[in-house]
């Protein structure tokens, strides 16, 4: 043992301690570690033969810290006698051979109690022997606790041997679904947990990783869609350890170890859905005012369009705070959990995206407040650079998506809900002669239960009195009632139709057929299909990659393309939001849940994702003959007696031997003897000879009964005399069994097993789908060929011993086939396990059903075809979902990154949030279309849904992109408002008003504004270049400069404009900073250049006390091309003693005047309008600066 002192200088908090400790605990050989922030390091004790110092340093590095070793020391075995460093333990001179043997010995008797369960009475002990190079040491562990463990093991083994089985039950029935998955082997256990707080598949990955670290856990599987975990352990793991592991990952869990826990989990799940709904409603109510604020940007004529903008920022901040930090708190918790596990998840993306928008807005808000000493916008303008609504809408839409997603996911488990509803609530129990109705959970094994017509059978059991017809459609899907009589098995939740009967309860509570089916479906729905590994791999690197792309998007836009900081931040946020991998995490589990649930409704139990996926690939199916292709109820057809024996003698001897066997053929002979009233003879020494037959001693003589190989190989007797007769029987599809002594052949009994009515239909359907079929049987070649011919199978494997069935499966697999095996017996279990897919029939044994990946409850081979069809439909849906999930991100990320901004396609963060939520909803909805699956029919809804959704969501993407582009354009227009103080605005407006102003037009009729200045006032700040105006020069406002650069009129300050509206060689002297005033659209020319401007109109600017301006365009020789058909005479007219001037008002200015009630309709008069009486007319919209002007006659005199 060795101890080292570590120095970790960059530790700074308790989380650092936990991260390092977590990594060190995962290393083998670590005995103890103490790492503290206070010491900036700590002590590690370890076995230096197991783990090295370099590995310890690497573990600390993995936790994210650099460490160094300060000193080390080797621990001694005794404090008083330290071992020198050079002391070593000598290696053995030669290799040592160690053998460990464990033995449990039981000495006693086994009997059955009143409930038919085995009881062991006696002594038992555990013995361990260790042999090292031939020297044995024996350790006897006879403590009571050890004996208890041994007793448990033995009793579990005995239960499968001694459980009573009636002769009726030994005959395969059309339904014995109670024989479902066998109990979990001794020494292992499976725990089921309900998980709360997951938001995406990354969350599931974090929890899986943490659960897998718990000692004793062999496998952990967390299903995001089902919100459950299945944990396989060695049986030693306590539930609290699993719950603590989930808690350590940052989530909450509850054990699902009882019906009460299941009910509580469902109640919690319903509460979670309600909680999400309430969160959405609160968030939506808080967001609605901000939505109205956005509408006012587009439609300023709405109520409040002129009065509310100054209050946008402060109101949005107040409304966003609870959305961001109360409703959105879960995203921060999830992000922190991910960081602790050194990973990113969906919460990371939402938290980063919304925080970016929120704090960006908050910083600019605080700067504005400090600069202007005001919490509201000044001069009727809104505070710039505010995106609080982005954070609020994003969280609102994500919560909406989660609510709709949770509701949709809840529907995917409808199959289980339907099964649970079937359970009876009470049972009519006869105890001590008194009939009482009691709750179903109070029924115990051995109770006698009375069921009357129309009532549900409450639990599983065996009829002891009466008979009836029972509707088992809810379990098997078979519509016809099944006749039940004395000794028959009944299944809980089935419906009694005609008569009354009593039965003894054999399976209650969680052990009933229905409960086990529900548990099997839940386990299947909680499993992962292999294709899910693809989605998990993508999710593991997807989020970090998205964050990288988002950062790159910001850097490119801001530093390389010269976009504004706000524009680059919005692109960064949109990429973060659109790329959430939610849909990817839902793609597989939702389809798997609906598909397996739908299969269960049709009597097909699919045990998870792996058999589901393999079923799609199967191209060869091997069928067992007896009980699978045939009814499994053979009947005696021929008896041939030889020598001194007659037919009755042969039947008597054969039946006496076979009465101890449970083989279907033996049952047929035994039953035939009973029907013929032939008395049986006591036998001794019964023995089964695998693959050959049986033998027993009657009247001191050994008799053998079996197939050809038994007679020829074991006894060495010749069959020449019987060969033709046997061949004739076998050619007719009959199985000939030979009775012989050690010296002679006594007779032959032929048994025929009829083919199931549905077998040929199933085989034909498989052939139509290109699937190769085989039949495997231990029967002779001729009989096998005859049965195969009846059903249409050409590939026959006959006379195959039970132990050789698996080997034959291997040979077919080696030919390149994906093989499914369909069987029902214990002898089929190895082949079922060997095949790529095992399909067990509902009339089979527990062992066969445990080995099968799919269980066919109805015992109808056509369901094999349906199992393959529904598997293909489900896997196809999974692939569609994966395509959609990836398509959303592949299409959405470039649009969010504004790669197509040149085409007018951008995506704002709040709309990206809607698109992300809709992507998850669409994947779940696509999975739900599997619910319309009908056996044997084309599912048109499922087939058409992907096409419809693809068209719909492409349209939505484009619509969102265009809407975002319009919102950005509107935001750009308002971003430059009120960016200087009120005093500066007034100074700028006064400067323009005092200057000589002109309007000139471009070739397309767009107006451009010009002012003549000799020098710029201090209120106009230069962004680039200088403000010196001399010679032929111009200083351009920020908006106008950006437009000119975009149109390629100039590139940089200092460029010369050769012909600038008639002025020659005008030098761009400088570009102004944004002011939020008229100056942003102006050209400020030197006096010399101003004189050369051609085709101009006189413009007068009036600066008002509130910081706004009014523009008057004097109609002289130049009438705007865009309005020449709308402006007629501007000459004044006299009415009585009053002279009125016609005033044509631009579209935007007219709207504002109407809102302020200056006039209502064209032709209205206004007295003393800037010193004149006027008649007002509204002009059409041009979407240019003309919309803000007043057009008047040249004689109009403006009086301020």
Write structural notes for this entry:
The protein is an alpha+beta fold. 42% of the residues lie in helices and 23% in strands. The chain is built from 35 helices and 47 strands. The strands form eight sheets. Strands 34, 35, 36, 37, 38, 39, 40, 41, 42, 43, 44, 45, 46 and 47 form a 14-stranded mixed beta sheet that branches. Strands 21-33-32-31-22-29-30 form a seven-stranded mixed beta sheet, with helices on both faces. A six-stranded antiparallel beta sheet has the order 13-12-14-20-15-18, with no helix packed on it. A hairpin with a 2-residue loop joins strand 43 and strand 44. The longest helix is centred in the first third of the chain and has 40 residues.
């Amino acid at each position: 043992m060795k101890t080292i002192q570590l120095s970790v200088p960059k530790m700074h908090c308790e989380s650092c301690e936990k991260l390092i400790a977590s990594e060190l605990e995962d290393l083998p050989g670590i005995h103890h570690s103490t790492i503290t922030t206070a010491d900036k390091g700590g002590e590690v004790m370890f076995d230096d033969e197991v783990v090295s110092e370099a590995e310890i340093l690497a573990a600390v590095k993995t936790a994210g810290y650099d460490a160094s070793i300060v000193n080390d020391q080797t621990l001694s075995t005794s404090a008083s006698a330290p071992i020198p460093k050079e002391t070593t333990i000598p290696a053995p001179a030669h290799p040592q051979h160690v053998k460990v043997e464990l033995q449990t010995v039981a000495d006693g008797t086994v009997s059955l109690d009143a409930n038919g369960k085995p009881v062991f009475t006696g002594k038992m002990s555990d013995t361990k022997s260790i042999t090292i190079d031939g020297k044995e040491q024996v350790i006897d562990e006879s403590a009571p606790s050890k004996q208890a463990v041994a007793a448990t093991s033995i009793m579990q083994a005995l239960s499968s041997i001694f459980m009573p089985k009636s002769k009726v039950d030994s005959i395969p029935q059309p339904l014995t679904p109670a024989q479902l998955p066998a109990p979990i082997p001794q020494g292992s256990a499976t725990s089921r947990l309900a998980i709360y707080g997951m938001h995406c598949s990354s969350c599931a990955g974090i929890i899986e990783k943490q659960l897998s670290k718990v000692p004793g856990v062999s496998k952990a599987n967390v299903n995001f869609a089902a919100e459950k975990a299945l944990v396989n352990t060695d049986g030693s793991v306590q539930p609290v350890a699993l719950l603590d592991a989930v808690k350590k990952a940052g989530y909450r869990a509850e054990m699902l170890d009882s019906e009460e826990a299941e009910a509580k989990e469902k109640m919690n799940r319903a509460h979670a859905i309600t909680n999400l709904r309430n969160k959405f409603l609160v968030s939506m109510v808080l967001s609605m005012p901000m939505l109205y604020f956005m509408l006012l940007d587009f439609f300023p004529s709405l109520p409040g369009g002129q009065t509310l903008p100054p209050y946008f920022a402060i109101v949005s901040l107040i409304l966003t705070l609870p959305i961001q930090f109360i409703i959105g708190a879960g995203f921060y918790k999830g992000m922190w959990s991910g960081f602790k596990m050194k990973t990113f998840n969906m919460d990371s993306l939402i938290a980063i995206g919304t925080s970016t928008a929120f704090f960006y807005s908050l910083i600019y808000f605080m700067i504005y407040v400090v600069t202007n000493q005001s919490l509201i916008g000044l001069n009727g303008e809104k505070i710039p650079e505010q995106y609080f609504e982005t954070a609020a809408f994003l969280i609102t839409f994500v919560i909406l998506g989660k609510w709709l997603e949770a509701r949709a996911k809840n529907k995917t488990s409808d199959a289980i809900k339907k099964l649970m509803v079937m359970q009876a609530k009470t049972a009519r129990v006869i105890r001590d002669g008194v009939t009482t109705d009691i709750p179903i959970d109070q029924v115990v094994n051995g109770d006698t239960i009375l069921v009357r017509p129309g009532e549900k059978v409450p639990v599983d059991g065996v009829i002891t009195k009466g008979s009836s017809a029972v509707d088992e459609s809810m379990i098997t899907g078979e519509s016809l009632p099944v006749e039940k009589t004395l000794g028959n098995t009944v299944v809980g939740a089935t419906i009694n139709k005609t008569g009354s009967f009593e039965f003894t309860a054999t399976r209650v509570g969680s052990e009933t057929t229905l409960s086990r089916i529900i548990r099997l479906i839940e386990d299947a729905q909680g499993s992962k299909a292999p294709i899910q590994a693809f989605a998990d791999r993508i999710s593991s690197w997807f989020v970090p990659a998205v964050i990288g792309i988002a950062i790159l998007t910001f850097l490119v836009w801001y530093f390389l393309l010269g976009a504004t900081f706000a524009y680059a931040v919005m692109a960064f946020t949109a990429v973060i939001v659109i790329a959430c991998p939610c849909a990817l995490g839902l793609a597989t589990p939702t389809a798997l849940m609906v598909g397996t649930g739908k299969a269960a409704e049709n009597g097909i139990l699919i045990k998870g994702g792996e058999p589901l996926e393999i079923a799609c690939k199967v191209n060869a199916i091997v069928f067992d003959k007896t009980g699978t292709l045939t009814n499994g109820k053979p009947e005696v057809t021929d008896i041939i007696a030889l020598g001194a024996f007659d037919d009755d003698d042969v039947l008597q001897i054969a039946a006496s031997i076979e009465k101890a066997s449970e083989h279907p053929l033996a049952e047929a002979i035994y039953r035939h003897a009973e029907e013929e009233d032939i008395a049986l003879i006591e036998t001794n020494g019964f023995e089964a000879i695998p693959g050959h037959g049986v033998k027993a001693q009657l009247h001191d003589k050994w008799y053998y009964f079996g197939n050809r190989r038994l007679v020829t190989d074991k006894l060495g007797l010749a069959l020449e005399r019987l060969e033709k007769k046997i061949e004739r029987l076998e050619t007719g599809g009959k199985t000939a069994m030979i009775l012989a002594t050690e010296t002679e052949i006594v007779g032959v009994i032929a048994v025929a097993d009829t083919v199931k009515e549905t077998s040929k239909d199933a085989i034909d359907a498989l052939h139509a789908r290109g699937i190769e079929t085989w039949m495997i049987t231990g029967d002779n070649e001729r009989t096998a060929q005859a049965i195969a011919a009846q059903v249409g199978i050409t590939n026959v494997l006959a006379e195959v011993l039970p132990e050789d069935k698996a080997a034959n499966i291997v040979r077919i697999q080696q030919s390149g086939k994906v093989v499914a095996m369909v069987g029902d017996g214990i002898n089929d279990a190895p082949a079922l396990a060997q095949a790529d897919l095992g399909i067990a029939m509902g009339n089979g044994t527990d062992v066969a059903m445990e080995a099968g990946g799919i269980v066919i409850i109805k015992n109808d081979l056509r369901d094999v075809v349906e199992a393959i069809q529904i598997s293909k439909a489900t896997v196809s849906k999974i692939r569609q979902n994966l395509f959609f999930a990836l398509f959303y991100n592949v299409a959405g990320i470039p649009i969010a990154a504004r790669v197509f901004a040149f085409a007018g396609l951008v995506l704002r963060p709040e709309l990206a949030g809607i698109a992300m939520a809709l992507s998850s909803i669409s994947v779940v909805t696509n999975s739900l279309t599997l619910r319309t699956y009908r056996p044997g029919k084309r599912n048109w809804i499922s087939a058409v849904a992907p096409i419809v959704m693809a068209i719909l969501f492409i349209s939505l993407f484009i619509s969102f992109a265009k809407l975002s582009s319009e919102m950005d354009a509107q935001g750009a227009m308002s971003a430059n408002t009120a960016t200087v103080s009120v005093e500066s605005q007034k100074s700028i407006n006064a400067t323009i008003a005092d200057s000589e102003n002109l309007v000139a037009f471009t070739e397309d009729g767009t107006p451009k504004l010009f002012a003549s200045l000799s020098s710029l006032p201090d209120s106009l700040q230069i962004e680039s270049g200088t403000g010196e105006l001399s010679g032929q020069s111009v200083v351009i406002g920020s908006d106008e400069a950006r437009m000119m650069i975009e149109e390629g009129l100039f590139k940089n300050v200092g460029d010369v404009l050769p012909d600038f509206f008639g002025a020659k060689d005008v030098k761009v002297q400088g570009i102004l900073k944004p002011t939020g005033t008229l100056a942003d659209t102006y050209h400020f020319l030197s006096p010399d250049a101003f004189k050369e401007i051609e085709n101009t109109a006189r413009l007068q600017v009036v600066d008002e006390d509130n910081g706004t301006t009014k523009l008057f365009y004097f109609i002289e020789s130049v009438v705007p091309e865009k309005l020449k058909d709308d402006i007629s005479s501007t000459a004044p007219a006299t009415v009585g003693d009053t002279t009125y001037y016609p005033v044509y008002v631009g579209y935007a200015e007219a709207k504002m005047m109407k809102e302020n009630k200056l006039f209502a309709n064209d032709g209205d008069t206004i007295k003393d309008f800037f010193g004149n009486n006027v008649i007002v007319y509204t002009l059409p919209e041009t979407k240019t600066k003309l919309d803000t002007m007043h057009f008047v006659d040249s004689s109009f005199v403006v009086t301020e």
